[in-house]
Design a protein that fits this description.
The structure is a single chain. The protein is an alpha/beta fold. The protein has helices at residues 3-21, 40-48, 59-68, 89-95, 105-114, 144-152, 172-191, 213-218, 228-231, and strands at 30-34, 53-56, 77-80, 98-102, 122-127, 157-163, 204-206, 223-226. The protein has one domain: Alpha-Beta Barrel (TIM Barrel). It contains nine helices and eight strands. It has an eight-stranded parallel sheet with strand order 7-6-5-4-3-2-1-8. The longest helix has 20 residues, at 172-191. The structure holds pyridoxal-5'-phosphate. Pyridoxal-5'-phosphate binds next to strand 8 and helix 9. InterPro entries: Ala_racemase_N (IPR001608), PLP-binding_barrel (IPR029066), PyrdxlP_homeostasis (IPR011078). Pyridoxal 5'-phosphate (PLP)-binding protein, which is involved in PLP homeostasis. Residues 7-233 form the Alanine racemase N-terminal domain. The modification N6-(pyridoxal phosphate)lysine is found at residue 36.
């Protein structure tokens, strides 16, 4: 068995066990394979092993991979999970199915305006800065309702939920605490009468990476974003 196959089996088993441990079904947790820094051939291999959802962080690299794997396009789901600069938003709008990292109204507006009309609306999550650090991207919890209202009025974006990248820590209780905060924010939005729920589908909590999927799943994650545990350690050139 290849290392990739082993890794995919192992991560699926971790998701399964974590789901069982908190009385959830593993089917409610989507596995996003984060392929940043790895070549298109690795994505092709993972796809041949049944993996369909892939996440990319860097626009240029991601778009190159989407194009290189054009022959598989209809059976792949491409998620953009990295920071988006204004001058790169068009490439994201034209090539991806999902964007997890919306943290400014300006970027949402550009993605909406640049989404080609022959494609379905872009599925989007708003990235929230839970820990409140100035250095990290993500919108503050107090600005969340406003951006969600504005996105819900954009016809080429379909609001699906929230995403976060908490401060890395080995302490499971701290991991759970930040995931719990994101879950509570989603739950408030789901109940909010200030949002037009016909136009949005708040069913997604994109949280949990290689080292904290158990804590994320225990707190309600519906999509875990896993790179290292699937493709191995990244080397940046
Ligand atoms: C790189 C990255 C991941 C995957 O991280 P691993 O620790 O390698 O699993 C997940 N989410 C985002 C936003 C990332 O940039």
């Amino acid at each position: 068995m290849s290392a990739l196959q082993n890794n995919l089996n192992a991560i699926k088993e971790r998701i399964h066990q974590a789901a069982i441990a908190c009385g959830r079904s593993a089917q409610d947790i989507k596995l996003l394979a984060v392929s940043k820094t790895f070549p298109a051939e690795d994505v092709r291999d993972a796809h041949s092993l049944g993996q369909t959802c892939f996440g990319e962080n860097y626009v240029q690299e991601g778009v190159a991979k989407v194009l290189e794997l054009k022959d598989l396009r209809s059976s792949l789901e491409w998620h953009f999970i990295g920071p988006i600069q204004s001058n790169k938003s068009k490439d994201v709008a034209e090539n991806f199915d999902w964007v997890h990292s919306i943290d400014r109204i300006k970027i949402a507006q550009r993605l909406n305006d640049q989404r080609p009309s022959h494609l379905p609306p872009l599925e989007v999550c708003v990235q929230v800065n839970i820990s409140g650090e100035a250095s990290k991207s993500g919108i503050g919890p107090d600005e969340l309702l406003d951006i969600c209202q504005k996105i819900s009025a954009m016809p080429h974006l379909h609001l699906r939920g929230l995403m976060s990248i908490p401060e890395p820590t080995d302490d499971v209780q701290s991991q759970r605490k930040s995931h719990q905060q994101l879950r509570e924010l989603l739950s408030q939005l789901q109940k909010s009468t200030a949002l037009d729920h016909q136009k949005i589908q708040l069913d997604t909590l994109s949280m949990g990476m290689s080292s904290d999927i158990e804590a994320a799943i225990a707190e309600g994650s519906t999509m875990v974003r896993v790179g290292t545990a699937i493709f191995g350690k990244r080397t940046y050139l």
